[in-house]
Write a structure and sequence with these properties.
Chain A has 95 residues and is mainly α. Chain A is built from three helices and no strands. Helices cover 37% and strands 0% of the residues of chain A. By secondary structure, chain B is α/β, with parallel strands linked by helices. In chain B, α8 (217-227) runs antiparallel to α16 (459-473) and α10 packs across α13. The chains are: A mainly alpha (95), B alpha/beta (485).
Chain lengths: 95, 485
Protein backbone atom coordinates (compact mmCIF):
# COMPACT_ATOMS: atom_id res chain seq x y z
CA UNK A 1 0.00 0.00 0.00
CA UNK A 2 1.27 3.44 -0.70
CA UNK A 3 0.11 6.87 0.36
CA UNK A 4 -0.31 9.19 -2.63
CA UNK A 5 -0.62 12.96 -2.79
CA UNK A 6 -4.40 12.75 -2.90
CA UNK A 7 -4.42 10.87 0.42
CA UNK A 8 -2.00 13.40 1.93
CA UNK A 9 -4.35 16.21 0.93
CA UNK A 10 -7.25 14.31 2.48
CA UNK A 11 -5.40 13.75 5.79
CA UNK A 12 -4.27 17.35 5.83
CA UNK A 13 -7.90 18.45 5.56
CA UNK A 14 -8.93 16.12 8.40
CA UNK A 15 -6.00 17.32 10.55
CA UNK A 16 -6.69 21.00 9.82
CA UNK A 17 -3.07 21.51 8.80
CA UNK A 18 -2.51 23.32 5.52
CA UNK A 19 -0.03 21.59 3.24
CA UNK A 20 1.50 22.97 0.03
CA UNK A 21 2.74 20.82 -2.86
CA UNK A 22 6.33 20.67 -1.69
CA UNK A 23 5.40 19.74 1.86
CA UNK A 24 2.89 17.18 0.59
CA UNK A 25 5.59 15.36 -1.36
CA UNK A 26 7.97 15.28 1.57
CA UNK A 27 5.16 14.02 3.84
CA UNK A 28 4.17 11.32 1.36
CA UNK A 29 7.76 10.03 1.35
CA UNK A 30 8.03 10.08 5.15
CA UNK A 31 4.64 8.50 5.74
CA UNK A 32 5.31 5.75 3.22
CA UNK A 33 8.54 4.76 4.94
CA UNK A 34 6.83 4.83 8.35
CA UNK A 35 3.86 2.77 7.14
CA UNK A 36 6.19 0.25 5.50
CA UNK A 37 7.68 -0.21 8.95
CA UNK A 38 4.24 -0.47 10.56
CA UNK A 39 3.05 -3.13 8.07
CA UNK A 40 5.05 -5.64 10.11
CA UNK A 41 2.00 -6.02 12.34
CA UNK A 42 0.23 -7.87 9.53
CA UNK A 43 2.50 -10.86 10.19
CA UNK A 44 0.43 -11.52 13.31
CA UNK A 45 -2.98 -13.15 13.36
CA UNK A 46 -4.98 -11.24 15.96
CA UNK A 47 -8.48 -12.54 15.13
CA UNK A 48 -8.99 -13.95 18.62
CA UNK A 49 -7.23 -11.20 20.59
CA UNK A 50 -9.15 -8.65 22.63
CA UNK A 51 -7.85 -5.10 22.06
CA UNK A 52 -6.11 -3.51 25.04
CA UNK A 53 -7.95 -0.40 26.11
CA UNK A 54 -6.23 0.31 29.43
CA UNK A 55 -3.02 -0.93 31.05
CA UNK A 56 -4.37 -0.24 34.51
CA UNK A 57 -6.37 -3.23 35.63
CA UNK A 58 -8.47 -1.28 38.09
CA UNK A 59 -11.93 0.15 37.70
CA UNK A 60 -11.98 3.89 37.45
CA UNK A 61 -13.03 5.75 40.57
CA UNK A 62 -16.30 7.60 40.57
CA UNK A 63 -16.53 11.11 41.86
CA UNK A 64 -19.66 12.94 42.86
CA UNK A 65 -21.35 14.84 40.07
CA UNK A 66 -21.61 18.29 41.49
CA UNK A 67 -21.48 21.80 40.14
CA UNK A 68 -18.57 23.81 41.42
CA UNK A 69 -18.45 27.49 40.71
CA UNK A 70 -14.75 28.18 40.80
CA UNK A 71 -15.17 31.61 39.35
CA UNK A 72 -12.20 31.28 36.99
CA UNK A 73 -13.56 32.90 33.87
CA UNK A 74 -10.80 35.46 33.87
CA UNK A 75 -8.15 32.75 34.11
CA UNK A 76 -9.71 30.80 31.26
CA UNK A 77 -9.80 33.81 28.95
CA UNK A 78 -6.36 35.04 29.99
CA UNK A 79 -4.31 33.17 27.40
CA UNK A 80 -6.64 33.74 24.46
CA UNK A 81 -4.74 35.13 21.45
CA UNK A 82 -7.31 37.80 20.65
CA UNK A 83 -8.18 40.09 23.52
CA UNK A 84 -11.72 40.34 24.75
CA UNK A 85 -12.88 40.45 28.32
CA UNK A 86 -15.83 38.14 27.97
CA UNK A 87 -15.49 35.88 24.94
CA UNK A 88 -13.10 33.95 22.76
CA UNK A 89 -12.89 35.83 19.48
CA UNK A 90 -12.76 34.01 16.12
CA UNK A 91 -13.05 35.16 12.50
CA UNK A 92 -16.66 35.83 11.51
CA UNK A 93 -18.62 32.60 10.93
CA UNK A 94 -22.14 33.87 10.18
CA UNK A 95 -22.95 36.61 7.74
CA UNK B 1 30.89 26.99 44.98
CA UNK B 2 31.60 24.36 42.34
CA UNK B 3 31.80 21.69 45.04
CA UNK B 4 28.14 22.34 45.82
CA UNK B 5 26.93 21.58 42.30
CA UNK B 6 28.88 18.32 42.16
CA UNK B 7 27.13 17.00 45.26
CA UNK B 8 24.27 14.55 45.07
CA UNK B 9 20.79 15.66 46.11
CA UNK B 10 20.99 13.43 49.18
CA UNK B 11 24.20 15.09 50.29
CA UNK B 12 22.88 18.63 49.68
CA UNK B 13 19.72 17.83 51.66
CA UNK B 14 21.88 16.48 54.51
CA UNK B 15 24.07 19.60 54.48
CA UNK B 16 21.04 21.89 54.55
CA UNK B 17 19.44 19.91 57.38
CA UNK B 18 22.68 20.09 59.37
CA UNK B 19 22.87 23.82 58.59
CA UNK B 20 26.23 23.45 56.88
CA UNK B 21 24.71 24.98 53.73
CA UNK B 22 21.86 27.44 53.28
CA UNK B 23 19.29 27.25 50.52
CA UNK B 24 20.74 30.54 49.26
CA UNK B 25 24.26 29.05 49.00
CA UNK B 26 22.93 26.10 47.05
CA UNK B 27 20.58 28.08 44.82
CA UNK B 28 23.26 30.65 43.96
CA UNK B 29 25.72 27.88 43.09
CA UNK B 30 23.32 26.27 40.63
CA UNK B 31 22.23 29.62 39.20
CA UNK B 32 25.85 30.64 38.69
CA UNK B 33 26.70 27.41 36.93
CA UNK B 34 23.54 27.59 34.83
CA UNK B 35 24.48 31.15 33.79
CA UNK B 36 27.84 29.87 32.56
CA UNK B 37 26.23 27.01 30.68
CA UNK B 38 24.22 28.84 28.01
CA UNK B 39 25.95 26.87 25.30
CA UNK B 40 24.18 23.70 26.40
CA UNK B 41 20.84 25.41 25.67
CA UNK B 42 19.24 23.39 28.47
CA UNK B 43 16.81 26.07 29.55
CA UNK B 44 13.86 27.46 27.63
CA UNK B 45 12.85 29.83 30.46
CA UNK B 46 14.95 30.87 33.43
CA UNK B 47 13.58 32.06 36.74
CA UNK B 48 16.89 32.66 38.50
CA UNK B 49 16.32 35.88 40.43
CA UNK B 50 12.98 34.64 41.77
CA UNK B 51 14.72 31.42 42.78
CA UNK B 52 17.32 33.30 44.82
CA UNK B 53 14.59 35.39 46.48
CA UNK B 54 12.67 32.26 47.37
CA UNK B 55 15.84 30.69 48.77
CA UNK B 56 16.47 33.72 51.00
CA UNK B 57 12.89 33.53 52.19
CA UNK B 58 13.30 29.83 52.93
CA UNK B 59 16.44 30.50 54.97
CA UNK B 60 14.66 33.09 57.12
CA UNK B 61 12.35 30.42 58.47
CA UNK B 62 13.68 27.08 57.25
CA UNK B 63 11.39 24.06 57.59
CA UNK B 64 13.97 21.30 57.78
CA UNK B 65 11.40 18.52 58.11
CA UNK B 66 10.59 18.78 54.42
CA UNK B 67 11.99 16.22 51.97
CA UNK B 68 13.47 18.83 49.60
CA UNK B 69 14.25 21.69 52.01
CA UNK B 70 15.13 24.77 49.95
CA UNK B 71 16.46 22.62 47.10
CA UNK B 72 16.58 24.49 43.77
CA UNK B 73 15.57 22.51 40.71
CA UNK B 74 14.66 23.01 37.07
CA UNK B 75 11.87 20.97 35.43
CA UNK B 76 11.00 19.87 31.90
CA UNK B 77 8.97 22.50 30.07
CA UNK B 78 6.10 20.07 29.67
CA UNK B 79 4.85 20.62 33.22
CA UNK B 80 2.45 23.53 33.65
CA UNK B 81 3.82 25.96 36.22
CA UNK B 82 1.50 28.68 37.49
CA UNK B 83 2.44 32.12 36.15
CA UNK B 84 5.60 30.74 34.51
CA UNK B 85 5.60 30.32 30.73
CA UNK B 86 5.18 26.69 29.62
CA UNK B 87 5.99 25.98 25.97
CA UNK B 88 6.26 22.18 25.55
CA UNK B 89 9.14 23.04 23.19
CA UNK B 90 6.62 24.38 20.66
CA UNK B 91 6.10 27.66 18.88
CA UNK B 92 2.36 27.19 19.30
CA UNK B 93 2.73 27.65 23.09
CA UNK B 94 5.45 30.33 22.92
CA UNK B 95 3.38 32.79 24.96
CA UNK B 96 1.38 30.38 27.07
CA UNK B 97 1.41 31.20 30.78
CA UNK B 98 -0.55 28.60 32.78
CA UNK B 99 -2.95 29.81 35.43
CA UNK B 100 -2.61 26.54 37.33
CA UNK B 101 0.12 24.17 38.53
CA UNK B 102 0.65 20.52 37.58
CA UNK B 103 0.14 18.08 40.45
CA UNK B 104 3.65 16.65 40.13
CA UNK B 105 5.35 20.06 40.39
CA UNK B 106 2.98 21.08 43.19
CA UNK B 107 4.07 17.97 45.13
CA UNK B 108 7.68 19.11 44.66
CA UNK B 109 7.08 22.69 45.86
CA UNK B 110 5.07 21.34 48.83
CA UNK B 111 8.25 19.56 49.97
CA UNK B 112 10.25 22.79 49.91
CA UNK B 113 11.90 22.78 46.48
CA UNK B 114 12.43 26.00 44.49
CA UNK B 115 11.97 26.38 40.71
CA UNK B 116 15.12 27.38 38.78
CA UNK B 117 13.53 27.35 35.35
CA UNK B 118 11.98 25.30 32.57
CA UNK B 119 14.06 22.83 30.58
CA UNK B 120 14.24 22.27 26.86
CA UNK B 121 12.60 19.22 25.28
CA UNK B 122 11.47 17.90 21.93
CA UNK B 123 8.32 19.60 20.70
CA UNK B 124 5.37 18.08 22.60
CA UNK B 125 7.88 15.41 23.74
CA UNK B 126 7.98 13.96 20.23
CA UNK B 127 11.57 13.08 19.50
CA UNK B 128 14.60 11.14 20.65
CA UNK B 129 17.32 13.78 20.25
CA UNK B 130 15.87 17.13 21.37
CA UNK B 131 16.24 18.30 17.76
CA UNK B 132 12.51 18.90 17.24
CA UNK B 133 12.39 21.68 19.86
CA UNK B 134 11.39 25.10 18.50
CA UNK B 135 13.96 26.51 20.95
CA UNK B 136 16.93 24.75 19.37
CA UNK B 137 19.19 21.76 19.99
CA UNK B 138 20.49 20.89 23.41
CA UNK B 139 24.16 19.97 23.65
CA UNK B 140 25.11 16.83 25.55
CA UNK B 141 27.59 17.78 28.32
CA UNK B 142 29.53 14.62 27.45
CA UNK B 143 30.82 16.07 24.16
CA UNK B 144 30.20 18.99 21.85
CA UNK B 145 27.90 18.31 18.91
CA UNK B 146 26.37 15.26 20.57
CA UNK B 147 22.62 14.91 21.17
CA UNK B 148 21.52 14.51 24.80
CA UNK B 149 18.71 12.19 23.70
CA UNK B 150 15.05 13.04 23.95
CA UNK B 151 12.52 14.03 24.54
CA UNK B 152 13.69 15.01 28.07
CA UNK B 153 17.02 16.17 26.57
CA UNK B 154 17.26 19.49 28.39
CA UNK B 155 16.49 17.70 31.65
CA UNK B 156 19.15 15.04 31.11
CA UNK B 157 21.76 17.61 30.05
CA UNK B 158 20.95 19.81 33.06
CA UNK B 159 21.43 16.95 35.55
CA UNK B 160 24.50 15.57 33.83
CA UNK B 161 26.05 19.06 33.49
CA UNK B 162 25.16 19.82 37.14
CA UNK B 163 22.91 22.79 36.33
CA UNK B 164 20.28 21.29 38.65
CA UNK B 165 20.72 18.64 41.36
CA UNK B 166 17.69 16.67 40.15
CA UNK B 167 14.88 17.12 37.67
CA UNK B 168 11.70 15.59 36.36
CA UNK B 169 10.99 14.44 32.85
CA UNK B 170 8.18 12.62 31.10
CA UNK B 171 8.39 9.27 29.34
CA UNK B 172 5.96 8.19 26.61
CA UNK B 173 8.22 5.76 24.75
CA UNK B 174 11.61 6.20 26.43
CA UNK B 175 11.86 9.97 26.89
CA UNK B 176 13.34 9.70 30.40
CA UNK B 177 15.41 6.52 30.06
CA UNK B 178 17.04 7.13 26.67
CA UNK B 179 18.37 10.63 27.52
CA UNK B 180 19.46 9.35 30.96
CA UNK B 181 21.42 6.64 29.18
CA UNK B 182 22.94 9.15 26.69
CA UNK B 183 24.13 11.48 29.48
CA UNK B 184 25.32 9.05 32.15
CA UNK B 185 22.48 9.78 34.56
CA UNK B 186 19.71 7.80 36.26
CA UNK B 187 16.11 8.04 35.05
CA UNK B 188 12.99 6.28 36.29
CA UNK B 189 9.76 5.81 34.36
CA UNK B 190 7.16 4.89 36.98
CA UNK B 191 4.18 2.57 36.58
CA UNK B 192 1.34 4.11 34.56
CA UNK B 193 -0.96 5.75 37.11
CA UNK B 194 1.76 6.36 39.72
CA UNK B 195 2.35 10.06 39.00
CA UNK B 196 -0.56 12.32 38.16
CA UNK B 197 -0.80 13.57 34.56
CA UNK B 198 -2.79 16.63 35.66
CA UNK B 199 -1.15 19.74 34.27
CA UNK B 200 1.31 17.91 32.03
CA UNK B 201 1.00 18.91 28.36
CA UNK B 202 -0.52 15.74 26.88
CA UNK B 203 1.16 13.73 24.12
CA UNK B 204 -0.21 10.15 24.26
CA UNK B 205 -2.42 9.81 27.30
CA UNK B 206 -2.34 6.02 27.68
CA UNK B 207 1.49 6.05 27.66
CA UNK B 208 2.63 9.36 29.24
CA UNK B 209 4.18 9.19 32.70
CA UNK B 210 6.28 11.69 34.65
CA UNK B 211 9.38 10.51 36.47
CA UNK B 212 12.56 11.54 38.29
CA UNK B 213 16.02 12.05 36.76
CA UNK B 214 19.11 12.29 38.97
CA UNK B 215 22.82 11.65 39.42
CA UNK B 216 22.24 8.43 41.34
CA UNK B 217 19.63 5.90 42.39
CA UNK B 218 19.18 7.19 45.94
CA UNK B 219 18.31 10.71 44.69
CA UNK B 220 15.92 9.19 42.17
CA UNK B 221 14.17 7.22 44.94
CA UNK B 222 13.74 10.33 47.05
CA UNK B 223 12.27 12.34 44.19
CA UNK B 224 9.94 9.50 43.20
CA UNK B 225 8.66 9.42 46.78
CA UNK B 226 7.80 13.12 46.46
CA UNK B 227 6.14 13.13 43.02
CA UNK B 228 4.10 9.93 43.19
CA UNK B 229 0.61 10.48 44.60
CA UNK B 230 -3.01 9.57 44.00
CA UNK B 231 -4.79 12.50 42.38
CA UNK B 232 -8.50 12.74 41.66
CA UNK B 233 -7.78 15.34 38.99
CA UNK B 234 -6.32 12.57 36.79
CA UNK B 235 -8.95 9.89 36.11
CA UNK B 236 -6.22 7.29 35.42
CA UNK B 237 -4.29 8.02 38.61
CA UNK B 238 -4.18 4.84 40.68
CA UNK B 239 -4.79 4.68 44.41
CA UNK B 240 -2.22 2.09 45.52
CA UNK B 241 0.00 1.92 48.59
CA UNK B 242 3.11 3.93 47.74
CA UNK B 243 6.36 2.87 49.46
CA UNK B 244 8.80 5.18 51.20
CA UNK B 245 11.15 4.59 48.29
CA UNK B 246 14.24 6.30 49.72
CA UNK B 247 13.77 5.03 53.27
CA UNK B 248 13.18 1.44 52.17
CA UNK B 249 16.06 1.43 49.70
CA UNK B 250 18.32 -1.60 50.21
CA UNK B 251 21.24 -3.23 48.42
CA UNK B 252 20.13 -6.64 49.57
CA UNK B 253 18.74 -8.26 46.44
CA UNK B 254 19.75 -11.83 47.26
CA UNK B 255 17.63 -14.42 45.52
CA UNK B 256 15.83 -11.97 43.26
CA UNK B 257 15.09 -13.53 39.90
CA UNK B 258 16.14 -11.41 36.93
CA UNK B 259 15.01 -12.31 33.43
CA UNK B 260 17.16 -11.84 30.33
CA UNK B 261 14.91 -11.61 27.25
CA UNK B 262 16.50 -13.18 24.19
CA UNK B 263 14.48 -10.98 21.80
CA UNK B 264 16.39 -7.88 22.96
CA UNK B 265 19.50 -9.24 21.24
CA UNK B 266 18.57 -7.35 18.07
CA UNK B 267 20.21 -7.55 14.68
CA UNK B 268 22.98 -5.03 14.13
CA UNK B 269 23.37 -4.21 17.82
CA UNK B 270 26.93 -2.97 18.44
CA UNK B 271 29.29 -5.40 20.19
CA UNK B 272 29.87 -2.96 23.05
CA UNK B 273 26.15 -3.00 23.93
CA UNK B 274 26.17 -6.79 24.07
CA UNK B 275 29.31 -6.66 26.24
CA UNK B 276 27.69 -4.09 28.54
CA UNK B 277 24.67 -6.35 28.91
CA UNK B 278 26.89 -9.34 29.79
CA UNK B 279 28.72 -7.19 32.33
CA UNK B 280 25.36 -6.18 33.81
CA UNK B 281 24.36 -9.83 34.11
CA UNK B 282 27.63 -10.56 35.91
CA UNK B 283 27.07 -7.63 38.32
CA UNK B 284 23.54 -8.83 39.08
CA UNK B 285 24.89 -12.31 39.86
CA UNK B 286 27.57 -10.74 42.03
CA UNK B 287 24.83 -9.06 44.04
CA UNK B 288 23.23 -12.43 44.68
CA UNK B 289 20.49 -12.27 42.05
CA UNK B 290 19.50 -15.32 40.07
CA UNK B 291 19.59 -15.00 36.27
CA UNK B 292 16.80 -16.61 34.23
CA UNK B 293 16.59 -16.77 30.44
CA UNK B 294 13.18 -15.58 29.28
CA UNK B 295 11.30 -14.89 26.07
CA UNK B 296 9.10 -11.91 25.21
CA UNK B 297 8.05 -13.14 21.77
CA UNK B 298 6.24 -10.00 20.56
CA UNK B 299 9.10 -7.57 21.27
CA UNK B 300 9.78 -6.78 17.61
CA UNK B 301 6.16 -5.65 17.17
CA UNK B 302 6.37 -3.05 19.94
CA UNK B 303 7.75 -0.17 17.85
CA UNK B 304 5.27 -0.53 14.97
CA UNK B 305 2.47 -0.73 17.57
CA UNK B 306 3.78 2.36 19.32
CA UNK B 307 3.92 4.32 16.05
CA UNK B 308 0.19 3.72 15.62
CA UNK B 309 -1.02 4.15 19.19
CA UNK B 310 1.08 7.21 20.14
CA UNK B 311 0.34 9.30 17.01
CA UNK B 312 -3.35 8.34 17.20
CA UNK B 313 -3.61 9.64 20.74
CA UNK B 314 -1.44 12.66 19.86
CA UNK B 315 -3.63 13.64 16.90
CA UNK B 316 -6.59 13.66 19.23
CA UNK B 317 -4.82 15.47 22.11
CA UNK B 318 -3.32 18.13 19.85
CA UNK B 319 -6.66 18.96 18.26
CA UNK B 320 -7.03 21.53 21.07
CA UNK B 321 -4.38 23.78 19.48
CA UNK B 322 -6.65 25.69 17.16
CA UNK B 323 -5.60 29.29 17.81
CA UNK B 324 -8.83 30.06 19.65
CA UNK B 325 -8.51 29.57 23.39
CA UNK B 326 -4.76 29.89 23.90
CA UNK B 327 -1.46 29.71 22.09
CA UNK B 328 -0.31 31.00 18.73
CA UNK B 329 -2.84 32.18 16.14
CA UNK B 330 -2.16 32.84 12.45
CA UNK B 331 -4.30 35.23 10.42
CA UNK B 332 -6.83 33.50 8.20
CA UNK B 333 -9.48 34.52 5.70
CA UNK B 334 -12.11 32.58 7.60
CA UNK B 335 -12.35 30.23 10.60
CA UNK B 336 -11.16 27.07 8.78
CA UNK B 337 -8.34 28.95 7.08
CA UNK B 338 -7.29 30.34 10.47
CA UNK B 339 -7.23 26.81 11.98
CA UNK B 340 -5.22 25.38 9.10
CA UNK B 341 -2.65 28.17 9.01
CA UNK B 342 -2.31 28.28 12.80
CA UNK B 343 -1.53 24.57 12.95
CA UNK B 344 0.70 24.62 9.89
CA UNK B 345 2.80 27.55 11.17
CA UNK B 346 2.57 26.71 14.87
CA UNK B 347 3.62 23.04 14.82
CA UNK B 348 7.04 21.80 13.70
CA UNK B 349 7.62 19.12 11.05
CA UNK B 350 7.79 16.08 13.37
CA UNK B 351 4.61 17.06 15.23
CA UNK B 352 2.76 17.59 11.95
CA UNK B 353 4.02 14.23 10.70
CA UNK B 354 2.70 12.46 13.82
CA UNK B 355 -0.65 14.26 13.74
CA UNK B 356 -1.02 13.15 10.12
CA UNK B 357 -0.12 9.52 10.93
CA UNK B 358 -2.55 9.55 13.84
CA UNK B 359 -5.34 11.11 11.81
CA UNK B 360 -4.83 8.57 9.06
CA UNK B 361 -4.89 5.48 11.31
CA UNK B 362 -8.06 6.72 12.98
CA UNK B 363 -9.78 7.75 9.77
CA UNK B 364 -12.78 6.02 8.27
CA UNK B 365 -11.79 2.81 6.49
CA UNK B 366 -8.40 2.49 8.18
CA UNK B 367 -9.34 2.33 11.88
CA UNK B 368 -9.66 -1.48 12.01
CA UNK B 369 -6.60 -2.16 9.88
CA UNK B 370 -4.29 0.06 11.92
CA UNK B 371 -5.60 1.33 15.25
CA UNK B 372 -7.63 -1.70 16.32
CA UNK B 373 -4.87 -4.00 15.08
CA UNK B 374 -2.32 -2.10 17.16
CA UNK B 375 -4.52 -2.27 20.28
CA UNK B 376 -4.69 -6.04 19.83
CA UNK B 377 -0.95 -6.39 19.41
CA UNK B 378 -0.50 -4.15 22.45
CA UNK B 379 -2.50 -6.75 24.39
CA UNK B 380 -0.14 -9.50 23.17
CA UNK B 381 2.87 -7.43 24.28
CA UNK B 382 1.37 -6.94 27.72
CA UNK B 383 0.51 -10.67 27.91
CA UNK B 384 4.20 -11.47 27.24
CA UNK B 385 5.20 -9.52 30.36
CA UNK B 386 2.35 -10.95 32.48
CA UNK B 387 3.48 -14.46 31.53
CA UNK B 388 7.19 -14.03 32.42
CA UNK B 389 6.40 -12.18 35.64
CA UNK B 390 4.85 -15.37 37.02
CA UNK B 391 8.41 -16.67 37.34
CA UNK B 392 10.69 -13.65 37.78
CA UNK B 393 10.91 -10.34 39.68
CA UNK B 394 12.48 -8.04 37.09
CA UNK B 395 14.05 -7.89 33.63
CA UNK B 396 17.51 -6.62 32.66
CA UNK B 397 18.20 -5.17 29.19
CA UNK B 398 20.35 -2.46 27.61
CA UNK B 399 18.59 0.95 27.70
CA UNK B 400 19.36 1.87 24.10
CA UNK B 401 20.75 0.09 21.02
CA UNK B 402 23.64 2.61 20.76
CA UNK B 403 25.36 5.45 22.59
CA UNK B 404 24.52 9.12 21.89
CA UNK B 405 24.76 10.12 18.23
CA UNK B 406 25.80 13.36 16.57
CA UNK B 407 23.42 16.30 16.17
CA UNK B 408 21.95 16.08 12.65
CA UNK B 409 22.95 12.45 12.13
CA UNK B 410 19.44 10.95 12.12
CA UNK B 411 17.36 14.04 11.62
CA UNK B 412 16.18 13.26 8.09
CA UNK B 413 15.36 9.61 8.64
CA UNK B 414 12.35 9.26 10.94
CA UNK B 415 12.43 5.46 11.05
CA UNK B 416 16.09 5.27 12.10
CA UNK B 417 15.33 7.87 14.77
CA UNK B 418 12.38 5.80 16.00
CA UNK B 419 14.59 2.69 16.31
CA UNK B 420 16.36 4.38 19.22
CA UNK B 421 13.42 3.51 21.44
CA UNK B 422 13.36 -0.18 20.60
CA UNK B 423 14.19 -1.31 24.18
CA UNK B 424 12.16 1.33 26.01
CA UNK B 425 8.84 1.38 24.11
CA UNK B 426 7.51 -2.07 25.20
CA UNK B 427 7.56 -0.86 28.83
CA UNK B 428 5.21 2.05 28.08
CA UNK B 429 2.87 -0.15 26.05
CA UNK B 430 2.56 -2.49 29.06
CA UNK B 431 2.39 0.36 31.62
CA UNK B 432 5.33 -1.00 33.65
CA UNK B 433 8.01 0.80 35.69
CA UNK B 434 11.62 0.80 34.45
CA UNK B 435 14.84 2.52 35.40
CA UNK B 436 17.95 3.30 33.36
CA UNK B 437 21.28 3.40 35.17
CA UNK B 438 24.66 4.31 33.68
CA UNK B 439 26.77 1.17 33.41
CA UNK B 440 29.78 1.80 31.20
CA UNK B 441 31.32 3.69 28.28
CA UNK B 442 31.76 2.99 24.61
CA UNK B 443 35.05 3.40 22.74
CA UNK B 444 34.56 7.18 22.48
CA UNK B 445 33.96 7.49 26.22
CA UNK B 446 30.23 8.07 25.77
CA UNK B 447 28.02 6.61 28.49
CA UNK B 448 25.88 3.50 28.05
CA UNK B 449 22.92 2.53 30.20
CA UNK B 450 21.25 -0.61 31.47
CA UNK B 451 17.50 -0.83 31.95
CA UNK B 452 15.76 -2.72 34.75
CA UNK B 453 12.06 -3.34 34.11
CA UNK B 454 9.79 -4.19 37.04
CA UNK B 455 6.32 -5.46 37.75
CA UNK B 456 3.54 -2.87 37.90
CA UNK B 457 3.73 -0.83 41.14
CA UNK B 458 7.04 -2.46 42.14
CA UNK B 459 9.16 0.68 41.85
CA UNK B 460 10.84 -0.23 45.13
CA UNK B 461 12.01 -3.53 43.70
CA UNK B 462 13.74 -2.01 40.66
CA UNK B 463 15.15 0.87 42.69
CA UNK B 464 16.72 -1.71 45.03
CA UNK B 465 18.15 -3.71 42.14
CA UNK B 466 19.50 -0.52 40.57
CA UNK B 467 20.95 0.59 43.92
CA UNK B 468 22.77 -2.69 44.42
CA UNK B 469 24.11 -2.80 40.87
CA UNK B 470 25.12 0.88 40.89
CA UNK B 471 27.41 0.07 43.80
CA UNK B 472 29.15 -2.72 41.85
CA UNK B 473 29.31 -0.76 38.57
CA UNK B 474 30.87 2.29 40.23
CA UNK B 475 30.27 4.45 37.13
CA UNK B 476 32.07 7.78 36.74
CA UNK B 477 30.82 10.24 34.14
CA UNK B 478 33.58 11.72 31.96
CA UNK B 479 32.70 15.41 31.83
CA UNK B 480 35.25 18.10 31.01
CA UNK B 481 33.07 21.22 31.48
CA UNK B 482 33.94 22.12 27.84
CA UNK B 483 30.95 24.45 27.57
CA UNK B 484 31.62 26.56 30.68
CA UNK B 485 32.10 30.22 29.86
Amino acid sequence: MSIDLKTIKHISKLSRISVDEQKAEKLAGDLNSIFKFIEKLNELNTDKVEPLTSVAETTLKFRSDEVKNQNIREQIIKNSPEDNEDFFVVPKVVE
Amino acid sequence: MSDITSQSLTSIVKNIKEKKLSSEDVTKAFVERSEKSKELNSYISEDFSNAIDKAKKFDEKPNLDLKLPGIPMAVKDLFCTKDIRTTAGSKILENFVPTYESTVTQNIWNEGAILLGKLNCDEFAMGSSNETSFYGNVQNPIDKGLVPGGSSGGSAAAVSGQLTPITIGTDTGGSIRQPASFTGTVGLKPTYGSCSRYGIVAFASSLDQAGPMAQNVEDCALLQEVISSYDNKDSTSIDFKRDQYSKDLTKNIKGKKIGIPKEYRVEGMPKEIEELWQKGIAYAKDCGAEIVDISLPHTSYALPTYYIVAPAEASSNLARYDGVKYGFRAKGENLIDMYEKTRSEGFGAEVQRRIMIGTYVLSSGYYDAYYLKAQKVRKLIKNDFDEVYKKIDAILTPSTPSSAFKIGEKKDDPVSMYLNDIFTVPVNLAGLPAISIPAGHDASGYPLGLQIIGKAFKEQEILNLAYAMEDKINFKNKISDWWIK
